[in-house]
User: What shape does this take?
Amino acid sequence: MNKEPTIGAYIDDEERELIEAIEAGEYDGAKSLLTEERRAELQQMARNTLNEQRQKISLRVPRTDLARLKAKAMREGVPYQTVINSLIHKHVNQ
Assistant: This one.
């Protein structure tokens, strides 16, 4: 298995845009990509989730998926566990 990174190969468009912005010196790490409306929506989802009794589980996920999930949670300003809970909640209530 080749462990060397492939130059120019990106996971998705978001990663490509981020890398291009960093390389061009246009990335402002302090600038939040999260709107106040989206933050309020995520906080409400977290509150709704936290009001129920909790059951502890163990789950094995690929490291790359977890890293991307944690990065997304960080951009949204919420703990990654909250993002996982909201994904599960959305899926079972569809």
The two ends are 39 Å apart (CA to CA). The CA atoms of residues 38 and 76 lie 8 Å apart.
